[in-house]
Amino acid sequence: MIAALQMARRDFHRLAGAGIFVAFGMAALGASAGDQTPGYPDDFHAYLSIGEDGRVTVFSGKIEMGQGVLTSLAQMAAEELGVPLASIDMVMGDTDACPWDMGTFGSMTTRMFGPALRAAAARAREVVKTLAAQRLGVAADRLVLRDGSAAVIGEPTRRITYAALSSSVRITQTVNGAAVLRSAADFSIMGRAAKRLDGAGKVTGAAGYAADIRLPGMLYARILRPPMHGASLAHVDTTAAETLPGVQVVHQGDLIAVLHEQPDAAATALARVQAEWRLPEAQLDQDTIFDHILANAGEMKTIAAHGDLTAPVAKTFATTFQKGYVAHAPMEPHAALADVRDGRATVWASTQTPFPTRDAVAKALALESKAVRVVTPYLGGGFGGKSASGQAVEAARLSQICGRPVQVERTRAEEFFYDTFDPASVVKISSALDGDGRIALWDYAVFAAGERGAHTFYDIANLRIRSAGGMSHGGAPAVAGLHPFAVGPWRGPGANMNVFATESQIDIMAAAAGVDPLAFRLKHLSDPRMRNVLLAAAKAFGWQAGAGPSGRGCGIACSSDAGSCVATMAQVKVDETSGKVTVLRIVCAQDMGIVVNPEGAKMQIEGGLTMGLGYTLSEELRFKGGDVLDQNFDTYHLPRFSGAPRIEAVLVRNDELAPQGCGEPAITTTGAVIANAIFDATGARLSRLPMTPGRVAAAISARGAAGSASAAHL
């Protein structure tokens, strides 16, 4: 159980006493960071402090959910500031202590907040250097800053530590000048593997999550939920629950809950609530949803076009690709603890969006945002699914009503029911080759997946790319009623489907042309970064050239996502009777610019590919209308360690480019690389995800009639 709370920044300032406090205006944060720095506020919110013990506190509105940014952001700050990594203390996701941030998603922490943090630390280094020069009586340019101390060049005994500079006096400096970042050639902390700062706590169980927090007098809440999406409450009787000792019943508008000091007693009380529901008619399921999407996705928007789609071609190909709904299924269900009193609210929530959650809680409680504090402990996985934080609002409303701290934690069934699923989607591609075997035409239309990953990096003379029914910029479906339940971002949102379709279609054309799929891609690539990762993957994999299907079961897929370039190769074994696919090996080469933590980057690539095997081979939500049929892991099948292949992550060095995204790019290639490997092994082309054993077996049976280069929608 966790009772300790993070200290608000205003209290930190009041109590900290001596130390060096460096506040940064927007000019300092954005300088030398390029145009990747987002619109962080210009009211000195980006903040670093150097305590009188020499320890450095870094504040970030980002959160740690297993992706390792607690460590990599600390590496950035330590490198630029010139202090040991062990001297960094990170405070993350606390809306009273940290700079505003829209949330942790889209592989944006390193490539968006990272430049601002590096610039801030670089400016802090200059402040420290100025103070040290005054104390040592030398010009600032005669000093070198390393390992938390400033030393005179050529006179190593003349030195002063950051701790000595900050002791016994409070020094505040505000800077707005340009930041000069260290070059990759000078790195001693960035670019090197570092042990995760959260590792020991997580493997020993000491790390705290939202459901671990306890406050005196707190209540556990269980909330009455509808049995399916679209249901409305006709009648409710809470009398039987109210008679149980210690139970408090809340019925306020749409919020009906039972609360008790023990969670099992609250669950017992909820079972006593008698409710009658008006249920909607079930019309759609996981098989009929695709026709519904095509009919209701709305107006097509052209997002890229050049050349002439009526130009003469030699051979045409038309394929329709489909993918079902996928659940986030994090290890940790959504949870929140709220304490509302004296016109203020403090909420500890498992959320990827602390500041939007703060604003949502404030709106629900009719408070100003500044009266609400959201603290984000560690998350046990998010993958985009914890961008919406309804449990935090529920806990806050109940605390306001009851006058006591209230904790809301979803059951596993509720986690599945209320997930914002990765949307089902459809892609239609018409493409063509000319007489020389080059791609002459590319007419691409994506429905419901969105634009991410839809653009192509291949050299194609005549091209049109269109999109309909994707997500709005706020994360909601662009077309109301398109989906029978809520949908939202899922690790690599949209790109998983778009890369699956694109790279499968590229393979279809390569096979029809009788050309090795690697050679076919290189023939249409002038992008040097993409060529480099393809060649690096081929070298590590030991790619053997030959047109598919070769029977070896090897596939290729490429992607450009979150500023990174990725090339993945895989080998599979297919049981042609059962359709079971065993993934033997995956090699993934990634150019992500400067690599902050190589070991952490490899972990993210390995984790992304392993997670990607889920949407590729097994994960698909079954439903009937608004009734979610999969509500636990007995029917919804995630990848298991026992089925994980050998994975090799290859980091393609590119120190000329600022650090780019790492958490999502690799996962976007998984569906396509396995589909292409299955084709190479069997000659069967699948175009619907996931590629379950039944669908693989059916495609193999149909391959003779369909033709080896045709897609089987099975």
Percent range for β-strand residues: 15-25%
Assembly classification: single chain
| Contiguous runs where pLDDT drops below 50 for at least 5 residues | 1-5, 25-38, 41-45, 707-714
Biggest sheet strand line-up: 11-12-9-19-16-17-18
What is the approximate shape? flat
Biggest sheet record: 7 strands, mixed
Gyration radius, rounded: 27 Å
Number of domains: 3
Structural class: alpha/beta
Enter the CATH topology name of the largest domain.
Answer: Aldehyde Oxidoreductase, domain 4
CATH top level class name of the largest domain: Alpha Beta
Spatial gap, N to C terminus? 49 Å
Number of strands: 31
Specify the CATH architecture of the largest domain.
2-Layer Sandwich
Average pLDDT score: 91
**How helix-rich are the residues, as a percent range?**
25-40%
> Helical segment tally?
18
User: CATH homologous superfamily name of the largest domain?
Assistant: Aldehyde oxidase/xanthine dehydrogenase, molybdopterin binding domain
3D architecture notes:
Helix content is 29%, strand content 25%. It is α/β, with parallel strands linked by helices. The protein has 3 domains: 9-204, Aldehyde oxidase/xanthine dehydrogenase, molybdopterin binding domain (Aldehyde Oxidoreductase, domain 4, 2-Layer Sandwich), CATH 3.30.365.10; 210-279 and 334-409, Aldehyde Oxidoreductase, domain 4 (2-Layer Sandwich); 425-712, Aldehyde Oxidoreductase, domain 4, CATH 3.30.365.10. The strands form 8 sheets. It has a 7-stranded mixed beta sheet with strand order 11-12-9-19-16-17-18, sandwiched between helices. Strands 14-22-21-20-15-30 form a 6-stranded mixed beta sheet, sandwiched between helices. Strands 4-3-2-1-8 form a 5-stranded mixed beta sheet. The longest helix has 28 residues, at 109-136. It starts with 8 loop residues before the first helix and ends with a strand. 53% of the residues are buried. Residues 1-5, 25-38, 41-45 and 707-714 have low confidence and may be disordered.
